[in-house]
Design goal:
elongated; mainly alpha; about 10% strand; about 160 residues; two-stranded antiparallel sheet
């Protein structure tokens, strides 16, 4: 069965959940899908390396939790609003967001020093991936929740 552009796996899921993706700007949809893809890829690497290098699972889960917290907090670097002209949810970076993005970039650049304080050797690489995967997941989660809140507020969500 051919769906054309609608054949994307994420779009199929969103249609089955009856989410109004046509009310979300294309660039924002692509960004959220990219976060999901990158997170899934990193989680695969983390699981494989955790098993291969016998890294303590609690240390990896702790690193993921720290990453999720950071990513969720820094998901607010984008100003997500309803554009009444376009009839879509759009995202843009504001001045406050630029400051948060600069701080987030500084944290990511020093991630090795921060993670290296708690993990060493092979566990260090897994920990870095875990913080990164958590940050990507948290950022996508925060942005998705805000998009859904705006759609609910604008009465664009389907009634169950």
């Amino acid at each position: 069965m051919h769906h054309g552009r609608r054949g994307c796996y994420t779009s199929v899921i969103m249609r089955r959940l009856k989410l109004p993706i046509h009310h979300v700007a294309p660039f924002l949809r692509i960004r959220l899908r990219a976060y999901g893809f990158i997170c899934a890829l990193l989680l695969g690497v983390i699981v494989a390396d955790t098993w291969r290098f016998k890294v303590p699972v609690l240390a990896v889960l702790g690193a993921v939790a720290i990453g999720i917290t950071l990513g969720y907090a820094f998901s607010y670097s984008h100003h997500i609003t309803w554009d009444s002209e376009k009839g879509k949810v759009v995202a843009r970076l504001d001045v406050y967001g630029l400051v948060l993005l600069a701080f987030y970039t500084a944290l990511e650049l020093n991630r090795d020093d921060i993670t290296g304080y708690f993990l060493h050797g092979d566990a260090f690489a897994v920990g870095c991936y875990a913080v990164l995967a958590g940050a990507v997941f948290g950022r996508g989660l925060g942005m998705s929740r805000r998009v859904l809140a705006i759609l609910r507020k604008m009465n664009k969500m389907p009634v169950p």
